[in-house]
From TrEMBL:
The gene is rsmH. InterPro entries: RsmH, SAM-dep_MeTrfase_MraW_recog, SAM-dependent_MTases_sf. S-adenosyl-L-methionine binds at G36, G37, H38, D56, F83, D104, Q111. Keywords: Cytoplasm, Methyltransferase, rRNA processing, S-adenosyl-L-methionine, Transferase. This is Ribosomal RNA small subunit methyltransferase H. Residues 287-308 are annotated as: Disordered. Its main location: cytoplasm. HAMAP family: 16SrRNA_methyltr_H.
Length: 318
C-alpha cells in the first residue's frame, strides 16, 4: 500500500455507537480517531450544539478524519495527542462533564496496510511500528538494542509467545552479524526459530512477536489503565464509555478495571454489610463482551478478535 492511500473498516461500528446512547447536544470523545469511521457516526447523531473531540497521535489519521468530517454541523476538535493525555486535552478545550468516550484500541487498518510504517509481517518495510512518527523509540531499536533478557520478557508478556526463548536466540544471533532493519527480515528470523511442525499453521509465526514489539514501542498496555481512569473521571453521571479491544491482554486490563470500579468494596465476604466505604463508580452495561457478528467477521477478517465492553458512570449518590 502507498502511504497516501487509505482503506479502513471500523469494527463493531453499530454496536459501539448504540452503546454510547448519543444525545444530539452532547459532548463525545473518540480517543482513537483513526480514519474517523466511528466519529462519522457520532457526528451523524449530533446536532449543531453537539461536540466531537477526536484524538490521535498519527498526523495522517488526523488529516484524513478532518476532511472526512468537514461537512458536519456539530462542533469538532481534532487533537494530536495520546489518549494517555485525555485529561489535559479536555482541560485545554475547557470541556468538562463528557457524555461519551470511545476507545478503539490497537493499530489502525491504514497503519497495517502502509508498508512504510513497518507494522505488517506480510510485506517488506522498515522496522518502525510507531503510531506517533515523532516518537523516538522504534521497532528497530527494540529488536537490535534491547538486552536478550528484556526482549524475551517483552515477547512472553506482551505476545504470550511460548517460543520466546528460541526466537530471541535467533534474533541475537542474526543481529551479531548485521543490524536487522526490515519487517520481512525479522519475520523470516522468527519463522526459522519456530519448530517445523508449528510454522505452517493457520496463524502466522510472526503474529505474536510483532504484536509484542508494537506494544512495547507504543507503550499501549502501560498507559491503558490510566487512560481508562482519566476517561471515567471525565464522564458525567450517566455518561457512557465503550472500549474495543483486539487481543486478550488489552481485554484483560479493561475487564479488570471495569470490574474493580463496579465493585470496589474490600470488606471480607462474610461481613454483613460494607464498612470500607468504597462506592461503585460505574455499572457494567455489557456483562459479557460483545463480539462481531458472523457477517462482519466474514467481511472483515481483522474484526474476528474484537471485543466491545460498555459501562455507564454512576452518580455520586449511587
Amino acid at each position: 500500500m502507498k502511504p497516501n492511500t487509505f482503506s479502513h473498516t471500523s469494527v463493531l461500528l453499530r454496536e459501539s455507537i448504540e452503546g454510547l446512547c448519543i444525545h444530539p447536544a452532547g459532548v463525545y470523545v473518540d480517543c482513537t480517531l483513526g480514519g474517523g469511521g466511528h466519529s462519522q457516526w457520532i457526528c451523524e447523531a449530533l446536532g449543531e450544539n453537539g461536540i466531537l473531540v477526536g484524538i490521535d497521535q498519527d498526523d495522517f489519521a488526523l488529516d484524513y478524519a478532518k476532511k472526512r468530517l468537514e461537512n458536519y454541523t456539530c462542533q469538532r476538535y481534532f487533537v494530536k495527542s495520546n489518549f494517555a493525555s485525555l485529561a489535559k486535552v479536555l482541560e485545554s478545550l475547557h470541556l468538562f462533564g463528557i457524555d461519551g468516550i470511545l476507545y478503539d484500541l490497537g493499530v489502525s487498518s491504514f497503519q497495517l496496510d502502509d508498508d512504510t510504517r513497518g507494522f505488517s509481517y506480510h510485506h517488506d518495510g522498515p522496522l518502525d511500528m510507531r503510531m506517533n512518527q515523532s516518537a523516538d523509540l522504534t521497532a528497530e531499536t527494540v529488536v537490535n538494542d534491547y538486552p536478550p533478557g528484556e526482549l524475551k520478557k517483552i515477547l512472553f508478556l506482551y505476545g504470550e509467545e511460548k517460543f520466546a526463548s528460541q526466537i530471541v536466540k535467533s534474533i541475537v544471533k542474526a543481529r551479531e552479524v548485521k543490524r536487522i532493519t526490515s519487517t520481512l527480515e525479522l519475520s523470516e528470523i522468527i519463522k526459522r526459530a519456530y519448530p517445523p511442525r508449528e510454522r505452517n499453521k493457520e496463524k502466522h509465526p510472526s503474529r505474536k512477536t510483532f504484536q509484542a514489539i508494537r506494544l512495547e514501542v507504543n507503550g499501549e498496555l502501560k498507559i491503558l489503565e490510566d487512560a481508562l481512569s482519566q476517561g471515567l473521571d471525565a464522564l458525567k453521571p450517566g455518561g457512557r464509555m465503550c472500549v474495543i479491544t483486539f487481543h486478550s491482554l488489552e481485554d484483560r486490563v479493561v475487564k479488570h478495571f471495569f470490574k474493580n470500579r463496579a465493585n470496589p468494596c474490600t470488606c471480607p465476604p462474610d461481613f454483613p454489610q460494607c464498612v470500607c466505604g468504597k462506592k461503585p463508580e460505574l455499572k457494567i452495561i455489557s456483562r459479557k463482551p460483545i463480539a462481531p457478528g458472523q457477517d462482519e467477521q466474514e467481511q472483515n477478517r481483522r474484526s474476528r478478535s474484537a471485543k466491545l465492553r460498555i459501562i455507564e458512570k454512576l452518580g455520586t449518590g449511587s
